[in-house]
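S.,

Sequence below, as promised.
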Amino acid sequence: MTHESVLTRSTDDHGRSLSLVSQEQSHTPPTEEAEEPERYLEGLLEYWSQDGDVKESQLLPQGMFGRGFRGYAHAGLSTDCQLAFFYSSREVCVARVSFDTRRRRKEGLVLERKYDKSSQIADVALLNNILAVSTRQNLELHRIGHPGPGVTVSHGDWDPLGIASWEQDSNLMVAMGLRRGAGSSRNGRVIIHQVRAAPGGSLQRRTRRQFNLQNGVSPKFLIFDHEGTTLACITDRIVGNSVIIWRIGETMEDKDPVVIARHQHRPETDSDGLTSIAMYKSPSQQPYIFCTTSASTERFRSEGEWSFISPVPFPGGQVPPNAVHDLTTLQDHRQIVASTVSSVANKFAVLTKAGKILVLAVDAHEEGGIDSLQDEPDILPGSLCPLRSSRATPTCLRFDPAGTKLYAVDPEGKLLVVTFKPEN
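The prediction came back faster than expected:
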């Protein structure tokens, strides 16, 4: 007999939704005798979802890689949340998201690649069926399930820092953050590779676009919006972080970005400043960014360092101070490492370094703007494994394309899925 944690939603007298509530339900999973028990995935549970219910699965069984394997350091999800990837500095694998308890040991793996010491992995991103791997030397694109040739692009004498991907039909974009030099002589840039997936399975690189950052600034995280029309970059500085946002158009030049600078973010024992970014659009189609921070103990002296929501002032212009919303309710959860937003369900979700997932419900105010930002976040039952580093893969936490299911995966192969009903 096991216990299933279920989130239910309370309502007021008029039937309006209020908050998520955790309940415990008894559940007896079916037993099945296996010929080779060690070859079957362990600990699989399937919780069919209503609003707020949680499904849990273990995608990578223990012992599948043999002795000497220390485990993966990072994990993430594909754009459609149907595949998950796991990687360390020397190898990467892709597994199909499934809750099938009968699946055998490696039956769910769709790709495995190993690298030698000279070409260690820096970052990984996964589209619906294309794996992008950034090593110390190259960017590699591999089409899953197709034997056709992939794409390999050299970084030259630049160090890779951050990767983001987007696709629609057979067209895809992969953005790479790069850095060269150190200190005040450090240079940073972002390159977008546009690639087409040919019908025969091969990948064809079409164009490359480059955006240069000012001296002393280098990229840390990159993300495309859902439409593939905007690219955002969190910069990495010794003190203070900013967000640089470009519109991606045929005539766009690197002198056109929008820069959103916030309070000073002082370094501490872990990664300082901005730790994640998510982009979304309001019901009026106004673009917004949601940024989280790993704030220092000096936050009250440096005007905040809060996680925040801000509109994107395209084309150009300044953000009015009253349009930026600090999420002070997250002050007790300082180690936030990933975030995602669903405009359909009006949910903001964040992942902490301890593996906890927090969900904030954001509503429109009757007089315009955003309401309920001061409500305490709901903590989902169940958690991922604690992260070994202060940096998480941005796609380890994401909503599916419909915006109603929240997926989260950790480097040990644990998957959590929670379903929300669309808000009217």
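The first strand starts at residue 2 and ends at 11.

Coffee later?
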